[in-house]
Design a protein that fits this description.
Helix content of chain A: 25-40%
Radius of gyration of chain A: 19 Å
Oligomer: homodimer
Number of strands of chain A: 18
Distance between the termini of chain A: 17 Å
Largest interface: A-B, 21 and 21 residues
Strand content of chain A: 25-35%
Number of helices of chain A: 11
Shape of chain A: globular
Structural class of chain A: alpha+beta
């Protein structure tokens, strides 16, 4: 599969759907990707099983608060600095890039960087969606170290963290990114393809592409998305309240949707920490992490990233199952409701098990 | 010159005198140094002019708020991690360590690390005293980059900053150290001996040793220190007020000394930011950065680091000239009163120019 000018927009729309509102707004990265691919040529998407065992895979993306990222100007030297520091530590060349999260801008920036560096993009990611923290990746579940964790800003300052645990890496990365101005380009969890084969979520890039292509050609875009990801529709309504602030390097807050149609007279509250973590109504929890809750524009079917949520938007809220890795006890310990200090238990979405496969 | 069990205590006392109250309390590092030298053998002190041109010099010490350092436990792996990261970036071995500041604990920790690594210590430093910031080194005046700036904590977490300016390196280092718990072992301004010869303050280690030896054998220890550094005595009295807080990675505050003897009825106020930056009385500024203001115990002649200042201490406050590099317009721009937001001009201490040579 090639990502090129013809399918990039569809891919971006698919990344937004998978992101649970996170990963950063894809609009500017999409323009960057279109321009870079026009100049440097398309990026080839390779299955992790087709890489040589010893090939060095560099997961990457932006790290920090996406609200800040909206305003951030990228200088173009980020990919080269990330690669330089990774190769200096590993003593061998990077063979392929990978999205650490298949979500919003973070589905696109690694593609921009892959085009800049002339490298392929692995058809995989480490979340299958977006999560707020750098230790919430399937690679961490698989025992791959997050370090060396490289972050670099648009001015050319770079920090490399070598942490003794992935939790420490998350904390150091968060502080490092705050120090660099709130958002930075990052590379983390580098691994051989041999390790990647037991540590990543396969097929993420082509899945995003399929979702976007279904969306692009559809008469009923929302229905097309629902079908493409086997989602259940939670709510239809209008955004009537948005509360957000930047705190500790995260965008935290909530949004309230007032029902229309079948949901007239009801309210749905969305809890946000960069991503949408839970949806609640009067009766309690409707859906929660690790399952994926995404807000779609009621007309276009496009997913709305959390930093773009605003009063008056007509939306349809959908939810669909996370990767099975997150639904295990080990996965839930890292990304279940309790990991975000919620006091309710995880209840899997009522969808057939067959829908769990991508 | 060798630093060994016989002269380490004298060296530590000399470092404390040169430190302007900064560099951290030397008591625990002195015990570490005595034990390490007993186990690994003495450390040889080499003039920078005797190193081969291409020899890689690694300035190092603790970075952060010395008040925190008092309580910090060092694990023993710091020197190896600093060297490992420096050598990985430079691609060649470190030939010698250097105190980045000849002051308090920071005169001793590089010696501990030199003993651990089996390397010599260069008879030089980058301040001739202590200053609060990592861009206030003679190496920065000489155009040597602070980066890669390596900091590591006792748990084994390491951060490496590659900054585009030394001011950015200072800011990143400050945040990185805060992220690691307030104080960390650091290495910065690595350079070849060829560069060091135009960038460092020569003779700092042997100067500290001479001061300590004068102090150790003297009947009148304060007089011995005054003679050894060509100081003027500013004030004799009792500490009656100490105000300190940790802010932005610095220990900031002030201390007030109430005069006795010739100074009866007078007050002297000492302004502190890790180090003593200025001494003021009713008539205005008595002494200020970059000149060195040190508080001595009235009886023992030992210098008191700022984090040990407390109510009731009988003290004598002395001042002596900084290295000539700091008294130039370029030097004063970096470490003169205005650099610390004071609104008074620098007035050099009234001592003969001959006293400026070490």
């Amino acid at each position: 599969v090639l990502l090129d000018e013809a399918n990039l927009r569809a891919y971006a729309r698919g990344c937004a759907v998978l992101g649970a509102g996170g990963g950063g707004d894809p609009q500017i990265p999409l323009i960057m990707a279109q321009r870079t691919v026009a100049e440097r040529g398309p990026v080839s998407v390779v299955p992790v099983d087709e890489l040589a065992d010893e090939a060095l895979v560099m997961p990457c993306g932006l790290i920090g608060a996406p609200t800040v990222a909206l305003e951030k100007v990228w200088s173009g030297g980020e990919s080269e600095r990330l690669r330089e520091r990774v190769e200096a530590t590993w003593g061998r060349p990077v063979s392929a890039l990978m999205c650490y999260e298949i979500a919003g801008a973070n589905g696109l920036l690694p593609l921009v960087w892959a085009a800049e560096l002339g490298l392929p993009l692995v058809d995989a990611d480490g979340m299958g969606r977006a999560f707020p923290q750098m230790d919430q990746l399937t690679m961490s579940l698989a025992g791959i170290p997050a370090s060396p964790l490289v972050v670099t800003d648009a001015r050319g300052n770079t920090l490399v963290a070598y942490a003794v645990t992935n939790a420490a890496a998350e904390r150091l990365a968060r502080d490092a990114v705050a120090s660099l101005g709130g958002v930075a380009a990052g590379a983390l969890y580098q691994m051989s393809a041999l390790d990647a084969r037991r540590a990543v979520i396969r097929g993420s890039v082509t899945r995003a592409l399929r979702i976007g292509e279904a969306l692009s050609g559809a008469d009923d875009p929302v229905a097309a998305v629902v079908a493409a990801v086997d989602a259940i529709e939670l709510f239809e309504g209008k955004v009537v309240d948005v509360d957000r602030k930047i705190s500790g390097g995260f965008a935290r807050g909530s949004a309230v949707v007032e029902g229309v149609g079948e949901n007239a007279g009801q309210l749905l509250r969305l809890e946000v920490q960069n991503e949408i973590l839970a949806a609640l109504n009067d009766g309690g929890v409707v859906a929660s992490v690790p399952d994926i809750i995404t807000v779609l524009d009621a007309h276009s079917g496009d997913a709305i990233v959390t930093e773009r949520l605003c009063y008056g938007q007509r939306v349809r809220v959908i939810a669909f199952p996370s990767d099975p890795a997150w639904r295990t006890p080990e996965g839930l310990a890292v990304v279940g409701p309790a990991a975000f200090d919620y006091d309710f238990d995880y209840v899997p979405l009522g969808v057939p098990a067959a829908a769990l496969a991508p």
